[in-house]
Write a structure and sequence with these properties.
Blueprint (H helix, E strand, L loop, with lengths): L2 H19 L31 H22 L2 H16 L9 H24 L9 E2 L1 H9 L8 H13 L10 H11 L3 H11 L3 H11 L8 H5 L6 E2 L12 H6 L14 H18 L4 H10 L1 H11 L4 H4 L8 H18 L17 E4 L6 H8 L3 H7 L16 E4 L4 H10 L2 H4 L3 E4 L6 H8 L3 H7 L13 E4 L30 E3 L7 E4 L6 H7 L4 H7 L12 E4 L6
Parallel strand pairs: 1-2
Antiparallel strand pairs: 3-4, 5-6, 7-8, 8-9
Helix pairs in contact: 2-3, 2-4, 3-4, 7-16, 9-12, 12-13, 13-14, 13-16, 17-18, 23-24
Length: 570
């Protein structure tokens, strides 16, 4: 290689050395190699989990049963029955049958047992005849407490009452004596919860009560009497059998225009009872010349007793009469200061430490119902619950409106009156009630009808507005005070679901096998069936059927489901 050929190479070498060793070398930029992401090897497709058709079937059946229970709690018998039927039908219509799998068999047996239990409960408790349970009236417990010495009011309570009465207007004279003050003290301590609950409950009714009293020219402070009598509970019943928010005895209620029979007890109707209370208080006011202390004493102990106390004591003032224990019983002596203390606290509850959350005043539509109708049907037609219908109509003693009350007005939730009227107009007789009727035959009496139909003669008489000694005539229709069948049962004219066919006992069986293979079967009881006829149909015994279905007696409800566990010969 000649010399010239080496020169460029040497120049390059010299330049590189200078850069490497020089004082100000030029910074070098590192070369970044891009990272290539690692790709995971493809995974084989994951097969979806295999569904369990038996579990799905059971879940679907259970869902319908649960919905049926929800509807039943609302009192919607028609919807509950449809859901219960569907819960069974899903199993019977499935390609697996209801008994070919252990899980299905266990679910099916338990399902039938639960449905039968609900139907039995509905028959026994919601048959339209079992009277609603009352609750104890507060007056008994309050007067019991009042019979014991009460602590005197402290200085704070005494000052609060004095200031309150000086600034708050009352239309009844309120005494500030030690007895009244001691009850105001008691209301703020031992009875604080009771008074608070009563005042809260009363907000639903006080506007109506005050309107009635205002129209009758009565002092509005009298509207607070139910605080002590009942705590504004419509179904309160005292040991003396006084009932309702105003605690009327039966005789006094009738004297003041309230009805009381086998179907209704208007002492529990807040509006009607308030009108009766206004009438009675006006009568007492005239008897005692407008002395409201004596009126209140007479409201509790009776006007005759107070008049005798006045005559024996020779005094006209309640506080003077009660200065001695000789003339009035202790309950009446304590009743008046109890009521006055309740008026003080109720008129200005904040002054005494009560924070009352007011309810909306009770409101409803009224619909005239000339025929008996089951309240559960009313709940269904108005889209509400049986509890709400009963709360609006506490005067109804049973789950049905009265028979042959052409002027009876049923209360339904506000805004549902027109819908209910339309349903009522389109309803057939079987849609209305579960009441059963009997046409009297020649030679029958109340006693023979009651004995034949296995009902109480007293109930039979009362349900038909008769006395136990009344005579009945041939052709007369009597209400039978027991339910012939639960409303959960299928009506005879309704096409039956898959658990029941449409043939008579005289021909092929009115049953459907509950699954493949041998029985059991589910049989739906029809009108006219007896345990003997069903046992003969299935070539078994009455004892077997009663054992399989845990029956104690021989009575059968139309529409009830019976399990038949024996194989049926053909």
């Amino acid at each position: 290689m000649n010399r010239r050929a080496w020169l460029p190479a040497l120049a390059v070498i010299g330049f590189s050395t200078a850069v490497a060793c020089g004082a100000n070398p030029k910074p070098q930029v590192p070369v970044v190699t891009p990272t290539v992401p690692k790709v995971a090897p493809p995974q084989p497709p994951v097969a979806p989990p295999r569904s369990d058709p038996i579990a799905t079937l059971i879940a679907s059946s259970e869902a319908h049963f649960t919905e049926g229970e929800r509807e039943l709690k609302l009192g919607h018998l028609e919807r509950a029955r449809a859901d219960f039927d569907r819960a069974v039908d899903i199993l019977l219509e499935s390609p697996y049958g209801a008994r070919t799998d252990d899980r299905l068999r266990q679910h099916f047996d338990r399902l039938i047992d639960r449905i039968n239990a609900h139907e039995t409960t509905a028959l026994a408790q919601g048959d339209g005849f079992s009277e609603k349970q009352s609750e104890p009236a507060s007056i008994d417990e309050l007067l019991k407490i009042a019979t014991f010495p009460q602590p005197a009011a402290d200085a704070t309570t005494t000052a609060a009452v004095k200031t309150d009465l000086a600034t708050t207007e009352h239309d009844i004279p309120i005494s500030q004596n030690a007895k009244v003050l001691s009850y105001v003290e008691l209301f703020q301590t031992r009875l604080r919860d009771y008074i608070g609950e009563s005042l809260t409950r009363g907000t639903k009714y006080l506007p109506m009560i005050q309107n009635v009293f205002r129209a009758e020219g009565l002092p509005l402070d009298l509207a607070y009497i139910p605080i002590i009598e009942s705590g504004f509970k419509t179904n309160a019943l005292s040991k003396a059998k006084a009932k309702g928010p105003w605690q009327f005895m039966t005789a006094t209620a009738r004297e003041n225009g309230l009805k009381h029979d086998w179907f209704v007890d208007e002492r529990s109707d807040p509006e009607k009872a308030t009108i009766a209370a206004a009438r009675y208080l006006k009568t007492l006011s005239k008897m005692f010349d407008g002395d409201w202390n004596l009126v209140l004493a007479a409201y509790n102990g009776g006007p005759g007793r107070v008049q005798r106390a006045m005559k024996r004591s020779g005094k006209q003032d309640f506080w003077e009469i009660t200065g001695s224990s000789r003339f009035l019983p202790k309950e009446t002596r304590e009743y008046v200061p109890l009521i006055l203390a309740a008026m003080i606290v109720a008129k200005n509850p904040v002054q005494y430490g009560f924070d009352i959350v007011a309810h909306d005043p009770i409101a409803y539509d009224k619909v005239r119902v000339p025929h008996a109708i089951d309240l559960r049907r009313v709940a269904e037609w108005t889209g509400t619950s049986i509890d709400e219908i009963q709360a609006l109509n506490p005067e109804l003693r049973r789950w049905t409106t009265p028979v042959k009350y052409p002027d009876f007005e049923l209360k339904v939730p506000s805004g549902t009156g027109d819908t209910f009227k339309a349903k009522l107009a389109d309803a057939s007789s079987t849609d209305l009630t579960a009441l059963k009727w009997h046409t009297v035959k020649k030679g029958e009496t109340l006693s023979t009808v009651a004995r034949r139909l296995q009902v109480s003669r007293t109930d039979l008489a009362e349900a038909n507005s008769l006395s136990v000694k009344s005579r009945v005539r041939p052709g007369q229709e009597l209400v039978i005070p027991r339910a012939p069948a639960t409303l959960l049962a299928t009506r005879t004219e309704r096409p039956a679901p898959a658990v029941i066919a449409s043939r008579s006992l005289a021909g092929s069986a009115d049953v459907q096998t509950a699954g493949r293979g041998e029985s059991p079967t589910v049989y739906r009881v029809k009108r006219g069936d007896t345990l003997f006829s069903i046992a003969r149909l299935f070539n078994t015994t009455v004892a077997n059927i009663k054992s399989w279905n845990k029956l104690r007696g021989n009575a059968l409800a139309v529409g009830a489901r019976l399990k038949i566990l024996a194989s049926r010969s053909r």
